[in-house]
Amino acid sequence: MRPPLERGLSRLLAALGGSLAALGACVPGDGDRETAAGPGAGPPPSIASVAPASGSTSGGTAVVLMGSGFSGNGATVRVGTAPATGALANAAGTELTVTTPPGPAGAADVVVTNPDGGEARLAGGYAYAAAADPVVLGVAPGGGPAAGGTAVTVTGSGFSTSGTTRVLFGAIPSPGVTVLDSGTIAALSPPAVPGALAAVVNVSVTSPTGGSGTALGAFSYELWLSTGTPLVARGAHTATTLSDGQVLVAGGYDRATGASTASAEILDPRTGAFAATGSLSGARAYHTATRLPDGRVLVAGGAGATPAAELYDPAAGTWTLTGGLAASRYWHTAALLRTGRVLVAGGIGSGTGTAELYDPATGTWTSTGTLAAPRHAHASALLPDGRVIVLGGTAVGVGVISSAEVYDPATGTWTATGALAQARERHTATVLPSGRLLGAGGIGPGGAALASAEVYDPPTGSWTAAAPLAAARYAHAAAALPDGGVLVEGGYVTAAGAYAPAAELYDEALGRFLPRAAGPVTRVSHAAALLPSGDLLLVGSDFGGGAGAATLYRGAASAWLPAGELAPDSSDHTATPLPDGRLLVAGGWSGTATLARATVWDPATSSSSATGPLAATRSGHTATLLPTGLVLVAGGRGAGALASAELYDPATGLWTGAAPLSTARERHAALLLPTGRVLVSGGAGGNSETATCETYDPSAGTWSATGSLALGRSRHVTALLPDGRVLAAGGVAGGVALSSAETYDPASGTWAPTGGLAVGRLRHAVARLANGDVLVLGGYNAGPLATAEVYRPSAGAWTAAAAMPSARLDAAAVTMEDGRVLVSGGSGLAVPEASAVLLDPAVSLGGGGIGAWLAAPPLARARTCHTLTLLPDGRAVAAGGAGAAPASSCEVFGPSPAGGPVVTRVDGQAADPVTLTRGASVSLSGTGLRDPTVSLAGPLGGGSPARFVFPSTSSADGTGVSFVLSTPGQALPPGTYALRVAAGGRLSAPRLVRVP
Fold first, then answer.
1. Order of strands across the sheet with 867-870?
2. d(CA 497, CA 429)
3. How many separate helices (H) and strands (E) can be counted in the chain?
4. What is the pLDDT of residues 107-138, one digit of tens each?
5. Running DSSP on this structure, what letter comes out for residue 31?
6. Residue 950 has pLDDT above 70, yes or no
């Protein structure tokens, strides 16, 4: 048996890809020791062993040489050709401790030289091992301000405790790095890239020897984005998110006049523009606004107003008076109860100690239980059990109070509960993910701003101290974000009126506030509204510089997550969402041959399984999900261009032959029309491009010729326009990149020219925007392109969009649920890309075209000629593609629906898919459906999917929603759609519905 040292060295060298023989090294033994001594020298030294016998190429390993004759007065040691340091011998001369120098990987001789010239050599006595690359497992906290300076802890393994270790956030190095041990690094985040609109970056650790490890998308910069300018600079107003995602801003003090105003305006977050809407019947400030289950908004009370209340109708954009309050009040609170009624309590005026209930069904107010303590400038919240708590505030003649009481809708009475430890007014109360309540900031009895915070536990009715705010503040805003954090922003920090310098985020899991950068303007007594996208809108200010500005706070973005493997490896395949939510991946190119194999990938398990093979091998084909639930695959390339077509049945997993195309074609385009037919256009056949087009009728199973394109083209893109026409743009003909575009009218079956692209492009990507415009991006024309253009159907013309950060062709693009366009992979100058970017069409940096590109986490592997498909659950899956070799992996991008609203039944049906009738009322039932936004995304598998948003009404308890399936001015093609509900900044898991 070989001695342990030999076995260990052999394993080490094998790991390095070498061998003892290859390195010319011997196993240390007696025959390998050499000694020499000069004339008159004492007994020469002798080396028996070295422990440890191996270490990092970066050096710095403390080793002990065992032997004899080591001089304790000046012995030197070389490891390889470099001197070791710190030589120290014991008194007996049998042990010599040194620190190894850096050295190349492999075995190195160890040489000891005594001052008298006596020398000992242990051939191959020490083995340098290339340091293992560090591994980064996590970063905490995972986000911070764009200005940088967040102290984070990086955990992992293989971190070097000697030399210089670098930590990079994206491409920017941390300004402060301390390696605490081999598994822990303390670092500071650097500033985000200037001008970024969202930034989720990788965090990489680079060792002194150059090895590196990366955690993908491990850190998110929280950012402030400016949106449109309000028409009126105002403070002490309200901002209410409507059913369609727009925001109603009403009343308040007009900063230009100093008087309360009756004006109101609407912000469309998709465009960032404010537009005037109907004015209130009377000017008011410090009022309340409550969105009712039917979508209307109730405004009640206010300074400068009569006791009257009024209702805003979003459909008409008008206000109407409703039943008047029994008591005048402002600086009160309002809460929507699960019964659908609205509770208002306290306030300044005749109603300071009273409470009233508004019934939307009758439009009347009734008095309810009297508060134990009259109060105004208090805080209020709806607890998870349906009760309402009011806390703190000011009582006339008493001052700032600490008492709290809870209203029970079942009995109509108030009951005292645990009092705050700190009396406070003009504070905030926010429900946490656990159901507990966070009370923060405010003004204390002495008039000073408070930094203290407390947490209320509803089951026990008690308060416990929470970690304090970094900055005392009052008249601030606080909002629960979709990720569970509570953002606290703005306010005064002193009674004299100094403004809070920064925002803070309360993390319930950590039990403390985390620093966040200040918004671009100072605000007090402003309004906050959470948008369906999860962004937080802050608008107006009673004082300070924020009255004339609106700002969006954008937190962490989503990251790519590994999602299992496909079989087989492929590029140039198709990926089609099936009615049951799975993904059908068919055909493609293996790198050496076209494929007939098909795979079904299940997003629920991130796993794939083989399904029936295609009858013909093919790549460069099209696949379309039909209204019947079958998938039509047509054309492509096998031995040559194909005319054959096949149908896949998800129920049986089998393919059956379909009528062939009249023209063999590959690299063509296919799109599901509003009529239910499939339009196939252009493509290449033989040695040239074709202009012919044909449509497939699923009911008859036949193809019919239709109008031809004005110009034969392949590798073009198509998109369905809101009026039902089809846009075809770009492509190639005769080796020339095309800039022309055409539109197809299904009613007449003819093509007509429309505005041309600014630059010819092929192998580009396309996505239909939420407003019905069409985005094309990248592609090839004498080189990869970074430019992007937007087609506006109303004008029949193209407008420049912001250019991508890098040029790429064969990328993939899809419009996400929040309206942003995700672009992944592709290639630039023949190098596959792993990068991904997001276009936000609603944001403009000025002068750079429509929208702005945001950083997105990169793919785990570079891929081009892959597919990027919007899943029914709102995420996007990147599948397959070519890189260094064809890829079999999948990656998923997007937020998990966990913790969001749940739709259990659609029109009373629990199983999918549910067939809906156009123009009919649709009912949804589930949980967490209060203040909903209902949308359909699809048709699935029909090209670039569109998103349709429907005004809806909800029950007060959040268990029911109703909407009308009507899309005035837009074509709703037949097919299968993903129905989702957004509520509280979160999205539900999808329900699949069919529209005949």
1. 560-565, 889-893, 876-879, 867-870
2. 22
3. 1, 94
4. 999 999 998 888 999 999 998 877 677 878 77
5. G
6. yes
H or E element: which one contains 4?
helix 4-15
Residue 161's CB is within 10 A of a number of other CB atoms, namely 11
Backbone angles phi, psi at 268, to 5 degrees: -100, 105
Burial 520-554 (b: 16+ CB within 10 A, else e): ebbbbbbbbbbbbbbbbbbbbbbbbebbbbbbbbb
Distance CA 400, CA 424 (A): 6
Using the CB atoms, write b or e for 102-133: b if 16+ within 10 Å: bbebbbbbbbbbbebebbbbbbbbbbbebbeb
Residue with tokens 């091998």: 617
pLDDT digits (tens, 9 = 90+) for 436-453: 999 999 999 988 999 999
The gap between the terminal CA atoms of the chain, to the nearest Å, is: 77
Can you give the pLDDT at residue 886?
A: 47
Nearest-CA neighbor of 246 among 227, 222, 225? Answer: 227
The pLDDT tens digits for 388-420 are: 999 999 998 899 999 999 999 999 999 999 999
Written in H, E and C, the secondary structure of 803-868 is: CCCCCCECCEEEECCCCCEEEECCEECCEECCCEEEEECCCCCCCCCECEEEEECCCCCCCECCEE
Tell me, what amino acid is at 117? G
At 814, list the tokens: 């899809």
**What is the per-residue pLDDT for 710?**
95
Which tokens in the block code for residue 143? 């986000």
* Single-letter amino acid code for the residue at 359: D
Report which DSSP code applies to 594.
B
Cα separation, 360 vs 953, in Å, equals 13
CA separation for the pair 147, 167 (Å, rounded): 17
Structure confidence by residue, pLDDT tens digits, 529-554: 988 667 788 998 877 666 678 888 87
- The residues, any chain, with a CB within 8 Å of residue 71's CB and separated by 6 or more, are 45, 89, 93, 114, 115, 116, 118
Spatial CB neighbours of 903, under 8 Å, sequence gap ≥ 6: 924, 925, 926, 929, 979, 980, 981, 988, 989, 991
CA angle 363, 366, 367 (to 5 degrees): 155
825 CA to centre of own chain: 17
**Contact 344/301 with Cβ under 8 angstroms?**
yes
Cis peptide before 52 (omega within 30 of 0): yes
Q: How far apart are CA 275 and CA 108, in angstroms?
A: 77
Q: How far is CA 458 from the centre of its chain?
A: 32
The position carrying tokens 């969202």 is: 198
Identity of the residue numbered 169: F
Residue with tokens 């809070």: 500
- Cβ atoms of 727 and 767 closer than 8 Å: no
Residue 226 and residue 10: Cα distance in Å, rounded?
Answer: 62
Residue 754's region, left for phi above 0, alpha for psi from -120 to 50, else beta, is beta
Strand order in the sheet with 404-408: 379-382, 388-391, 404-408, 413-417
Q: Name residue, tokens 């822990």.
A: 184
Q: How many CB atoms lie within 10 A of CB 7?
A: 12
Q: Which stretch, 250-254, 561-565, 587-591, has highest mean pLDDT? A: 250-254
Type of residue at 238: T
Angle, CA 413 vertex, CA 412 and CA 416 arms, to 5°? 150
Q: For 132-179, how does the pLDDT look when each residue is reduced to its tens digit (9 = 90+)?
A: 778 787 787 777 778 888 888 888 888 888 888 999 987 789 999 999
The answer to whether 234 touches 252, Cβ cutoff 8 Å, is yes
What string of DSSP letters covers 160-208?
-SSS--EEEETTEE-S-EEEEETTEEEEEPPPPPTT-S-EEEEEEEE-T
CB 55 within 8 A of CB 64: no
